[in-house]
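Q: How would the structure tokens look for this protein?
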Amino acid sequence: MENRRKFLKKLGITAGGISTIGGLSPIFANTKEQLVTNKHIKINGRVTTNGKGIAKVQVTDGQQIVLTDQNGNFNFLSNSNRKFVYITQPAGFKINQLENGSADFFKHIDATKKNNEFLFELTPSVVSDNEHHFLLLADPQIQSKYEAQQLLNVATPDFINTVKDINHPNTFGIGCGDLVFDKLELFKDYNQSIKNTNVPFYQVIGNHDMDLNVRSDKMTTTTFESLFGPTYYSFNRGEIHYVVLDDVFFIGQDKKYIGYINEEQLAWLEQDLSFVEPGTTVVVSLHIPTYTGAVRRYPERDVMGGVVSNRAYLYKILEPYNTHIMSGHTHFNDNMVAKNRFEHCHGTVCGAWWSGPICWDGTPSGYGVYSAKGSDFKWYYKSIGHDKNYQFTVYKKGEHPDHKDKWCLNVWNWDPEWQICWYEDGIKKTDVSKIMALDPLSIKLHTGPKLPERRSWVEPQLNDHMFFFTPNEKAKTITVEVTDRFGNTYSQTV
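A: Here is the predicted structure in token form.
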């Protein structure tokens, strides 16, 4: 009994009850890592620009958040189990870059020292970032040198051209997870790609970016953090608040994982958003989508690894805000709209794992392009190797094996605000039906004996952005017209 008391006392558990260790939840454990959480480290420093302090900047160790004072100073007690001190990048300043091209907003805590001091030096933006732009790259997912070269020589020139087309100094990127495909040594190739764009990138951890063969989820982020810093954080651009979360939870068996946001992040997010005025546009980037239409399209599937299991609690925290959730992971394109929440599940840079020009739902290999002016937020999907006005594919009668009597089109970035019609010899027609279906090109490329050799397990997937119509067979010219939610009209004449 006496030994048990000594052990509990060592853990911080008194005779009067259970105490917390280093501000964490009660722990009954005896590992060295958990025991050292009792040690406190003094954190202090300053956030400045041209030697002058910047007030009210959020500074965090990933557990607690403090604001800098009027002179830009901050100080607090952290725990020796915390890895980083980092800031929420304030609006109006340039995004600093690491040598590898990613955003530089963090400092490493030296747990061997009782006192850590940090300086964050920022540079004002050349022009107001009230207008800003970003590229959202989901799943570059390179696994071999061949795929690394495809990323560098095929996809990256497209990114570069888009950045040139935007032509704005306040442009950045978000790598939305699965930057590589288990081969962590290929991070250097991914880094070369984003460096070539000449814009800073924020990174999201994906299930294929983790250290495997470890005993718990906490140990999977070592390599990622050594390159890109913390796996959850926030930053501001103009009037918009951006958040990045880690929603891949490794369950300690093979490569298995679930979509899940742990309590540490949810508690931190509540603090982070306490500094954000309700009604603000908040953009949350994570790898696994919180929810997709695949749950309905394939109800027999185990969706634990495909959506976030505790998403309802995330939604509750985000409820006061105009929220956009950015995700990837699925290799299909899906837009989910619910009141003041819009989830963009993006088609991927690698398409169907570098096995051809499209994802398995028929969405072309590509990425999202977003623009903000104040709280006005717009976007489009950019297909790699195509003009930005390429927004749908038309298939003539007989080309869809399951609907041979109809014409159809795949409008991959469709949402309920889009409008679709067609013209028969100049006469407008609007009788179009949306049907859950496969894409004809995906059927052609991903079934039968001509399966791609390197990804033979890729199969066509049902999607919710296929539209069917039946033109008059006597019509000489058919023009299909699609208008997005922003009033941009795209057309193809067959």
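Residues 1-37 have pLDDT under 50 and may be disordered.

The first strand starts at residue 40 and ends at 49.

Upvote if useful.
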